[in-house]
Amino acid sequence: MTQVLPAALSPGMVLILAGLVAALLPRMGRNVAGVVGVAIAFVHLLSYGNAPVGEPLLFAQSSVMGFDLTGVRVDRLSFIFSFIFHVAAALNVIYGWRHATRLEASMGLIYAGAAIGGALAGDLLTLFVYWELAALSSVFIVWAGGGHAAFKAGMRYLVVQVSSGLLLMGGIAVWAGQGNDLAFNSFELIGPDGRVALAPLLFLLSFAIKAAFPFLHTWLQDSYPKASAVGAVMLSAFTTKLAIYTLARGFAGTDILIVIGCVMTAFPVFFALIENDLRKVLAYSLNNQLGFMVCAIGIGTPLALNGAAAHAFVHIIYKALLFMGMGAVLTRVGTTKATELGGLHKSMPLTTVFTIVGAMSISAFPLFSGFVAKSMITLAAAEQHHFWAYLALLFASAGVLEHSGIKIPYFAFFAHDNFAPSITGRARPKEAPLPMLIAMGIAAFLCIFIGVVPSALYALLPFEAEYTAYTSAHVVTQMQLLMFAILAFALLVKFRLYPAEVRSVNLDVDWFWRVPGRKLLMGGVVWTSAAWRSVWGGARTGAAGTIRRLYATHGPEGGLARTWTVGYTALTTAVVLAITLLLVFAAG
What GO terms are given for molecular function (predicted)? Predict the structure, then answer.
């Protein structure tokens, strides 16, 4: 395609500028700015072309303080992530057509632009700028949820995100101080001496925070459910997938990621099964799906990395679709608590159908997008003889069907009917607003289209690797797994063994940050304050004593203030002169 804008201008900057313009316009103007901005940025991205494997296209190259910077690097890995980020930005604009606030509309575009700019960044310093811009813009989306809970969650979110940025900057400083250039390529976590290298470790920790690694994940479940119906959809797409991109770019083939990824796929299953807030269930499910991608990056083969990229691509779409469905429920009903929902399929049939499409996609049913991506990762694990990882991925696949594939649509739209007019005395809730239905319809179409025509997705994948999704072995194995999970759910519900939906607050490891962590922090503040008072008090006492001694010597009544005789003065002068002559002689 013909280059419509300067090649040195990142498509992310186009969306950032559109976001700044949108902040100044009324609602319709904001919507137009969003559509036009996404369209121009997407055409600009396509005009670069999908670079051949291993041959990046470099633009916006410059030198700052002796370091070579590359503002735009287009290769097959950065292209597929930038591509899907544009799709997500377009869905966000449509979904929030009526309900996005000025702040959400503006920051949503800036947030998407920062993610795109980060994916296309060719050096670490440029990545850092977009990394922090994504953090700062997204926190406003959390705060736009309104209320004290959203404000506090946003503050915690901001602390975590800024900490990630500080680790990234610390790694850049160490890396540059060791004489390395700032090109963003792969890193070796273990140095030539067999020890963990400091700079790559700092990079990995920075990426780990945004990828929601175990024990670092609670910011996700804390903040996303506090956002508005529109804001949660925006948040679901960018931060964690940008982190997945950086892991794939910097740490492909790092063995520890296989273990971390397997843990990530497994532990959210248990929290999601007992969680009452369905948007928080989706947040745990998001963590579970990230585990598949992290595990694939750890395996590091071309097939596994293609699986990670493909899974990130389809996950952004179907996870957005599920958040859209729950956002529509929140808009019409005012809650997403399972105990307060049910029976909505009677008044929100289209939302029900679209949500079921998202549920079948995340559960990896054949002919849906999740199947053609997730099976690449499990096959890669099997080919590399990672037996335990393969079993963990199978368990997680069954678990995601239980909590996202079944629990979300079942308790939201079926189960007990809490909206029957005979119970409430009011009419049933209305169907979702038209813009929300359009966005959900587009996402649902993409989920089915990719599942039916996977070659359209495979053409974008970053590495050369032969793969066929629809083999009898893949289809039969997956269907057996899904049918077993459905049977297990049915039996658990039948015999009332399935965890009951109750109004409760489930504790995660964030308890350690909020309770003991807060006590340690406050104890540290008290100790620091006491130490400061002690030091300052000692300094004041010492200074006062010194002043008193100086006054006693140099004051108007001190020894140096008395009248000296001529002889005493001459003797003192002679002694000083003698000492000076001796010092000069010694120096010579």
Answer: oxidoreductase activity
